[in-house]
Write a structure and sequence with these properties.
Elements lengths: L48 E2 L13 H9 L11 H11 L6 E4 L1 H13 L5 E6 L4 H9 L2 E6 L7 H6 L5 E7 L11 H10 L5 E5 L14 H4 L6 E6 L12 E4 L2 H9 L8 H11 L2 H24 L11 E4 L5 H11 L1 E2 L1 E3 L3 E5 L3 H14 L1
Parallel strand pairs: 1-10, 3-4, 3-5, 5-6, 6-7
Antiparallel strand pairs: 2-8, 7-8, 9-12, 11-12
Helix pairs in contact: 1-9, 2-9, 3-4, 10-12, 11-12
The structure holds pyridoxal-5'-phosphate (PLP).
The site of pyridoxal-5'-phosphate has 14 residues, from helix 3.
Length: 372
């Protein structure tokens, strides 16, 4: 190789043919915001807890570890491509036809597939902001444009979201309960909203925290999607079911959307341990209900304690709460860490705190009381 042909490693370098010397990446990938994972506590003296990722503090439900361990004995084999046993179990559990289901690597994986099947360059994706931080990332990966509609009183402003729809809109996310504010969307207001959405625009109701909701007025996506071909419901095994580490979630939608999702899934993406653990989790219905009830009771206790200390906290129907601390956000997160808990700060805006072990919750409440 002669000197004149030497590879230039600079981003703008060219080789002798005049082509860029680095692989050409899609413009959409440049400047992709990084997903900020919840911080794990630093090892040290004293107890430490993670309240940063809305995880379930409980160990797997009865029978789940056994099912997962048994499945692990077959990891030299590919998983069931169609996740048939799981789809059948989900179908019975939620009373939906198998053809209306699609599973994926977490509901984030399914959300990515939803964008793949609906949106590309020139298309718009509408969602409330602040909401789930995966939405802008997934939208950008798809090459589509995010239209972020500000929350109003920490809630979705559905009128403003409907006003934001254009002929370019392809997908709308509605997150209820909303991550990170914990606020919900009621059925009546969502129905009014859906009546304003053109029938060729897909509305994705992200119900990752559905199990923790106790407000009877809150929309149940599984009731709505049946009469609306443009509604898709996202659910996950990561939160209430406590399987965050196995990456498994699912969508419920009418056949055209569900079939498109299955067609563009990463082959064998949902692994066989996850499939077996999810089936076993669905069979532990009573134990699940007990644990979710306990977390909801703990949420009630924590919110009362916060308010007793004069802390302002919006009503939450999820397994976390939101403190709009503005400029004090980073300081609060650092103080929590010092006290032995990690939380999820959104710089300059606020902090999301998961409902976890009572001892951990008490530590966070004590810090919040100091900041009130
Ligand atoms: C946690 C969460 C999910 C679920 O993510 P998985 O990929 O299933 O772990 C989906 N949507 C929202 C809003 C979430 O907070």
């Amino acid at each position: 190789m002669s000197d004149t042909n030497a590879t230039d490693t600079g981003a703008t370098g060219t080789n002798s043919t005049g082509a860029a010397s680095e692989p050409r990446l899609r413009a959409a990938v440049a400047g992709l915001p990084a997903y900020k994972a919840g911080k794990a506590p630093a090892p040290g003296q004293g107890p430490s807890y993670k309240l940063a990722s809305n995880e379930n503090p409980y160990p797997p439900l009865p029978g789940v570890l056994e099912a997962a361990t048994a499945a692990a004995g077959s990891i030299n084999r590919y998983p069931d491509f169609a996740s048939s046993a799981l789809l059948n179990e989900l179908s019975g559990y939620y009373d939906v036809p198998v053809e209306h289901l699609a599973v994926g690597t977490g509901s984030v994986g399914v959300a990515q597939q939803l964008l793949q099947v609906t949106a590309g360059p020139g298309d718009e994706v509408v969602y409330a902001w602040r909401s789930f931080e995966a939405y802008p990332i997934l939208t950008q990966i798809a090459g589509a444009t995010s239209i972020q509609v500000p929350l109003r009183d920490e809630k979705h402003d559905l009128d403003a979201m409907a006003d934001a729809i254009t002929e370019r809109t392809r997908l709308i996310f509605v997150c209820t309960p909303n991550n990170p504010t914990g606020t919900v969307v009621h059925r009546a207001e969502l129905e009014r909203f859906l009546d304003r959405v053109p029938s060729d625009v897909l509305v994705v109701i992200d119900e990752a925290y559905r199990e923790f909701n106790r407000d009877p007025e809150v929309v149940d996506g599984l009731e709505l999607y049946r009469d609306r071909a443009n509604v898709c419901v996202l659910r996950t095994f990561s939160k209430a079911y406590g399987l965050a580490g196995l990456r498994i979630g699912f969508a419920v939608a009418q056949p055209p959307v569900a079939a498109a999702l299955r067609a563009c899934a990463v082959p064998f993406g949902v692994n066989l341990v996850a499939q077996a653990a999810a089936v076993a989790s669905l069979r532990a219905r009573d134990a699940l209900a007990e644990r979710v009830d306990a977390l909801v009771a703990e949420r009630t206790r924590v919110l009362a304690a916060l308010r007793a200390h004069g802390v302002e906290v919006p009503h939450t129907e999820a397994n976390f709460y939101w403190l709009r601390l503005g400029d004090a956000t980073e300081k609060f997160a650092a103080a929590c860490e010092e006290a032995g808990v990690t939380v999820r700060p959104f710089a300059g805006e606020g902090v999301r705190v998961t409902i976890g072990e009572p001892e951990a919750n008490d530590l966070a409440v004590a810090v919040a009381a100091r900041f009130a």
